[in-house]
Each structure stands twice: as structure tokens, then as C-alpha cells.
Amino acid sequence: MSLKLGVNIDHIATLRQARREAFPDPVDAAAVCLSTGADYIVVHLRKDERHINKKDLAQLCKYFPGKIHLECSVEPAMEKAALTYKPHSVCIVPEHPGEVTTMGGLKFTPAVIKRLASMIERLHKKGILVSLFVSPEPSDIRQAAKLGADIVELCTRDYSEATSAAQARKRLQDLALSTLLAKELGLQVHAGHGLDYHNVLAVADLGGVTCMNIGFAIVTRALFAGLPTAVNEMKGLL
Questions:
Q1: Whole-number Å distance between alpha carbons of 153 and 179
Q2: Is 71 known to be catalytic?
Q3: Is there a contact between 122 and 78 (Cβ–Cβ < 8 Å)?
Q4: 161 catalytic, yes or no?
Q5: Which domains are assigned to the chain?
Q6: Among 11, 44, 69, 190, which one carries the catalytic annotation?
């Protein structure tokens, strides 16, 4: 049984924003991805809207109901956007000023836990599934379950940046054990961050993960092979 594939199209919007043009349109990219193998479209709405913006989110949720997976921080403005446009699911991620990309899983400080609890409750009331982006650590997975999340997305950054085969094996073991724990606690398991055409197979082979969320590798492959081929090749690996 193949894993589901969530294609992150943020960098389609990054290209558009480089010239402040109306194209390439993320809506067009989403249509291509969904017609050529993607199961979901992933977008990260950041506070500075440096790639995906609220207009994009509104259009994507309108034209592809049940297919949009929104990544956002715990900031009230991001929660408001999620509640307004009602994507299929929301993955709550940490966000820090100046970061190039998300740097790791959520840090469950008392303040963050309190904020997450209220945000998760409000999202659930709107029928939106909630995912938490977490490091593959038992304590973080238990906390996600305690907060009532539906899904954990395991951060694969450490695995994807491993500098030796031994280190990669250790990171894969961490992911495997975290997946088992999450499933025992009744959570769905997604994985993402730094996955590409060369390293994704080992994670796919772990078992228990239901969806891979991948963006940068697919968009960069699309520059040379075309977006339909890039999506289809990744889906084929899964």
C-alpha cells in the first residue's frame, strides 16, 4: 500500500514573489500536483507571507476542499486565517524570525502548551484535523496525544542531515520508535523536512507513517523535469 504524498507548493509562490507578478499561480500548481499523484497540497502561511499569502490560502481552500494541509504557527493571526478559510487539516509548527525554513519540532513550554490547547479546541470545533510538528522524541509525542492532536508530523531534519551511514541509521531508529509510540497513542503519523528522491525510501520503509510531506525537492526537480513528472516520480517512490 503506497503512502500518501503531500506536496508543499510554497516555492511556487516564492518564484512568483521574486518578481511580484501574478504568476506562477499556486492554484495552477495545486491542480497539476493533484492530477499527477499528490494526495494533498501543503502550504505554510508565515507571518510575513513571504511566499504563500492569505489570498492564496482562500483560493486553494475554495477550489480544492478536503485537499489543503495548512502549516502555521500558534500566532492568533494564523489561527484566525485557519478558522476563516477552513483547510482540511492544520499542522502547527514553530516559527522564528529570520529562519530560512522550519528548524525543528515544537518546544512544549508551559506557555506553548496553553496556547496549543486553546487553538486545537477551536480548530476541532470547525471540523479541522490538527497535526503537531514534533521531534521524534517520546516526551513530545506523548504531549501531542495529551493535547488532543489527531496527527503528529515527525521532523526528519536530523535524518536528512545525517553525515554518516551510522548516524542515519540511528536517526531512522528514532523515527521508527516514535512512529510505534504515536500509533499506540492513537495518532496518525506524517513525516517531513529535508526529504528528497534519495533519502525518502528508508523512511517510507519504516512502516506506520501514512503521509510524506515534501516540497523543495519536488519543486527543484520540476525545474528540469516538469512538475507532473516530478510529482509522479516521488509518488512512485512511495
A1: 10
A2: yes
A3: no
A4: no
A5: 4-237 (3.20.20.70)
A6: 44
